[in-house]
From TrEMBL:
The lineage of its organism: Eukaryota, Metazoa, Chordata, Craniata, Vertebrata. It comes from Kryptolebias marmoratus (Mangrove killifish). It comes from the Eukaryota. It is found in: Secreted. Keywords: Glycoprotein, Secreted, Signal. Signal peptide: none annotated. GO terms for cellular component: extracellular region. This is Cartilage intermediate layer protein 2-like. Residues 57-140, 150-235 form the WxxW domain.
């Protein structure tokens, strides 16, 4: 459940897992300490700061598809493409098909499925020689408070050519480099019209990474054209 605090130029919120239930005397000293550190973030005067965690699940990740040897959602690769988004020591992993089926429901033989390696489904292990396309997420233990400051929205390109190329380097060159940190830890993309999250549009993305930026190529879409997107980047806040 989210706890939200809004004040002038601040927008902070905490995600508290549903199993973190009071009375507080039932919680461990470590959990209470982390909770109090999170609450203290609400009163830190940082522009657009986002305070979180107390543990919980990450977002869903999908960096591969089974068009080659299978679907390889390796933890090392996921961390490389999504710096700062996966904790150092995940406590659990969940994989589902893009249509929402669990691994058990899909009924496929899985080569790797753990918090150390990640998730791998090999085509060669399947009766029909083809895995489903999967997405994965990880559960992380309680953490200390982190602050993320978001940039404004940028929309430097549109899909009239080969696609919509909102790359970090291009945006930093066109705009003041002081507006965007050199190594963002988060990225968010939404449609320019309607602010629909990119992951909900059905488009396929060539790049969606805080260190590279966002690229949607027309050639990868069944409709032949990407939607027009805008992006913003999350940077560590400077105290």
């Amino acid at each position: 459940m989210p706890v939200t605090f809004v004040s002038s130029n601040i927008f902070c919120y905490i995600y508290i897992p549903s199993d973190f239930i009071l009375p507080i005397q039932t919680r461990s000293t470590h959990e209470i300490h982390n909770f109090l550190k999170l609450v203290s973030c609400l009163f830190t005067e940082l522009p657009q700061c986002k305070c979180f965690t107390l543990g919980g699940w990450t977002q869903w990740f999908d960096i591969d598809n089974p068009s080659g040897t299978g679907d390889w959602e390796l933890l090392t690769d996921l961390r490389s493409e999504n710096p700062g988004k996966i904790c150092d020591n995940p406590t659990d992993i969940e994989a589902v098909t893009l249509s929402g089926q669990s691994v058990a429901e899909a009924g496929e033989k899985i080569y790797k499925y753990d918090t150390t390696s990640g998730f791998v489904c090999r085509n060669e292990d399947q009766l029909d020689r083809r895995c489903n396309d999967y997405k994965v997420r990880f559960s992380c233990p309680p953490d200390v408070c982190k602050e993320v400051c978001w940039t404004k929205w940028y929309n430097r390109d549109n899909p009239s050519g080969k696609g919509d190329w909102e790359t970090l380097n291009s945006i930093r060159k066109k705009k003041s480099k002081k507006q965007i940190c050199p190594e963002p830890i988060y990225i968010e993309a939404v449609t320019a019209d309607g602010d629909i999250p990119a992951i909900n549009t059905g488009d396929n993305f060539y790049h969606y990474s805080p260190t590279i930026g966002f690229v949607c190529r027309n050639q990868d879409q069944t409709s032949g054209s990407c939607k027009d997107y805008k992006v913003r980047f999350g940077c560590p806040c400077c105290l």
